[in-house]
Amino acid sequence: MPAVNETLDRLQSFTQSGYKWGFETDIEMDLAPKGLNEDIIRLISSRKGEPEWLLAWRFKAFVAWQAMQEPHWAKVHHPPIDYQDIHYYAAPKKKAGPRSLEEVDPELLKTYEKLGIPLKERAILAGVENPQSNVAVDAVFDSVSVATTFRKTLEKAGVIFCPISEAVREYPELVRKYLGSVVPIADNFFAALNSAVFTDGSFVYVPKGVRCPMELSTYFRINARNTGQFERTLIVADEKSYVSYLEGCTAPQRDENQLHAAVVELVAFDDAQIKYSTVQNWYPGDAEGRGGIYNFVTKRGACRGVRSKISWTQVETGSAITWKYPSCILQGDDSVGEFYSVAVTNNRQQADTGTKMIHIGRNTRSTIVSKGISAGRSDNTYRGLVRVLPKANGARNYTQCDSLLIGDQCGAHTVPYIESRNPTAKVEHEATTSKIAEDQLFYCRQRGLSEEDAVNLIVNGFCKEVLKELPMEFAVEAQKLLAVSLEGSVG
Amino acid sequence: MLEIRGLTAAIEDKPILKGIDLTVPQGEVHAIMGPNGSGKSTLSYVLSGREDYEVEGSVTFDGLDLLSMEPEDRASAGLFLAFQYPVELPGVGNANFMRTALNAIRRKRGEPELDAVQFLKLARAETKRLSMPDDFLKRNVNVGFSGGEKKRNEVLQMAILRPKLAILDETDSGLDIDALRIVAEGVNALRGPDFTAVVITHYQRLLDHIVPDRVHVMADGRFVRSGGPELAHELEAKGYARLTAEAA
Fold first, then answer.
1. pTM for the structure as a whole
2. pLDDT tens-digit series, residues A185-203
3. Which superfamily does CATH assign the domain made up of B2-247 to?
4. On the CB side of A58, how many CA atoms lie within 13 Å of its CA?
5. Count of the separate structural domains present in chain A
6. How many other C-beta atoms lie within 10 A of the C-beta of residue A171?
7. Percent of chain A whose pLDDT exceeds 90
8. Do A457 and B92 touch (CB under 8 A)?
């Protein structure tokens, strides 16, 4: 499959040193003035051509946000964020509205080419089409979605996959019904902020009984200086449907920090399954901790139907600070929640990540596998909650948290909360902490591997249980990302 | 092939090797015997480049100044150590590990790398030749292996990497008699003008299967006796204490 091969080649060429996605694209931007107030929200809403109800919804979130405090319970430290010093809307100039690839700014296409995103729909359509490994991509550049591929193929299957701003116009009932239904507007500080100012993101609806014929993917890219990115993703899987969705993220290299506060909501009805994978590679800052993305993200899935299943897989290698807890609300009887995570921190990066599994229905099951890798002077925290409510008879949870330390100046922390209010529930928790041992490195080097190759081999082995959950094309990318992220961590 | 002159090694100021001289000509197999704590394993680690030691003296390997080289460069120059205690690598498949190692070495030598198919063909052939089950290749490196399986895995790696010089550090310990024979056959199959080996062992029984060209007895960081294969039998009959006392 040509596009994916190209992606891999591209990634291979990037794996020499440092952050390879740090270039900036020089295109004319339509930039809102800095700061956040009702006028800015009105501007965002009008740029998107939104209906009145959504503007009202945004205002409600803004009011709630103003009364809220930035959370400080996570094990991360950063200087105060000046929310009035950020551009809340940045879009490449030129028109919005329906567009074909030909209409997209060639500079933008070049950017995506550099990133190795398989955006060349025409090439694929003209070449060999292998439906099993096709990937439909929605690419979001700063505040707007620039191109969504494979729309027609998906439409044939009845699957809606489009920028959320377009969904607001084209499928208002669906959006209105589900937006904020999993993550309420005042859920937390960053979710409220996102609800007030979200700009773009993806919308997916998979109708009853439909197995989505290809992987869906969104690529997020922050380009403009001093902008925040506030995307909003909403995925609804109707009864007996299946969808696999992947998001990837990059940003240019800059000395100042940039804010990314996304919200992702998933809804799964009876017997539906959503597989959501993330490869997060926002700019992590330099070795001294200058710059990098503040990644404050709220991701939550509701297993509303019986036997529904939501599976989160994440590979987190980027960002100066990562604050995210993809969670599952297991309402339907026999529903299943899964969380597979690899979080890598190097240099001065800080990650506080984990999950919440809320067992409400009977015989609900959840699995948590978290692999934290810390190197340099970084801090890596797993924070998780397993809550079993009184009616969740027969609920089961299995949690495994493993930490791997590279060097002696980094930190690994595990903060598991377990609250069970049902005596029939079974909750298991296992945790290990290990260091890459000198004798493991020496063993590999004696066999001819360089120290860095040895670390990569050991780290990939450590993460194998999680990487195998990723769609295959992306597992290879993820492995290479791990290697890049840990460069210079030994020796 | 291997020239060791005046080699000393200390760890945290505690001397372990106190002046080793050894010449192993190409194509020969030399045995090093000696009681626990005499410095046999330290010698194997110093030769393969473990960094924990303060080392003095000179070692020439195939014309190279061995002591100035990184461990991985020694490996690609053709030195292999079969570890006394092979290390576990959780999640790392045995086949993947060996292919990565082989290709790292081939790359450094300017030889073409093997793809997965070519490698598996080679690995399956060697696995079969050493009477090891096929699942050896699929399992994670040494994880959940019995002591004997770990040692056989070392011999398998040696057979695949085809070193010029192999150092076998007590590869016989913990093996039952059948496994011992398989390991010995693995080594013997490699014997020839291009294969040199240093076999470290406690017991003479391995040397019934791998007949050495020379035997060296080590005690307290020095060689105290050297001789032909018959020295191993003498040692077995007299014991280390008496032989060492006679030498002193």
1. 0.80
2. 999 999 999 999 998 888 9
3. P-loop containing nucleotide triphosphate hydrolases (3.40.50.300)
4. 25
5. 1
6. 16
7. 42
8. yes
Instruction: Quote the strand ranges of A222-347, DSSP E.
Output: 232-237, 242-250, 257-260, 263-268, 273-280, 292-303, 309-316, 321-324, 327-330, 336-345
- For residues A291 and A253, is the Cβ–Cβ distance under 8 A? yes
Q: Looking at the complex, report in whole angstroms how far the Cα of residue B73 sits from the nearest Cα belonging to chain A.
A: 7
Evaluate whether residue A380 is within a structural domain.
Answer: yes
Of A445, A458, A465, the CB nearest to B72: A445
Checking DSSP bridges between strand A379-388 and strand A350-359, what pairing results, if any? parallel
Q: Which residue of B has its CA nearest to A443?
A: B87
Are A95 and A49 contacting, i.e. CB atoms less than 8 angstroms apart?
no
ipTM here:
0.95
Residue whose C-alpha is closest to residue A313's, from A118, A463, A483: A463
Q: Do A460 and B92 touch (CB under 8 A)?
A: yes
Nearest to A446 among B81, B92, B96 (CB): B81
Range of the domain at A156: 22-436
Is residue A180 a contact partner of residue A198, using CB atoms and an 8 Å limit?
no
Q: What's the mean per-residue pLDDT of chain A?
A: 82
pLDDT tens, residue by residue, B36-74 = 889 999 999 999 999 889 999 999 999 999 999 999 999
A323: β partners: A296, A352
Asked if B49 and A445 come within 8 Å (Cβ–Cβ), the reply is yes
Q: Is residue B36 a contact partner of residue B14, using CB atoms and an 8 Å limit?
A: no
* pLDDT digits 0-9 by tens, A360-372: 999 999 999 999 9
Q: Indicate whether A12 belongs to any domain.
A: no
Q: For tokens 């800080």, what's the residue?
A: A350
Contact A448 B89 (CB under 8 A): no
Per-residue pLDDT at A481? 76
Query: Tens of pLDDT along A235-280?
Result: 999 999 999 998 876 655 666 677 888 999 999 999 999 999 988 8
pLDDT tens string A119-178: 444 333 333 333 334 566 666 666 566 556 677 778 888 999 888 988 999 999 999 999
Does residue A237 come out as left (phi exceeding 0), alpha (psi in the -120 to 50 range) or beta? beta
Closest residue in B to A457 (Cα–Cα): B92
A138 near A148, Cβ under 8 Å? Answer: yes
DSSP 8-state symbol, A79: P
Domain ranges of chain B: 2-247
Structure tokens at B242: 């008496």
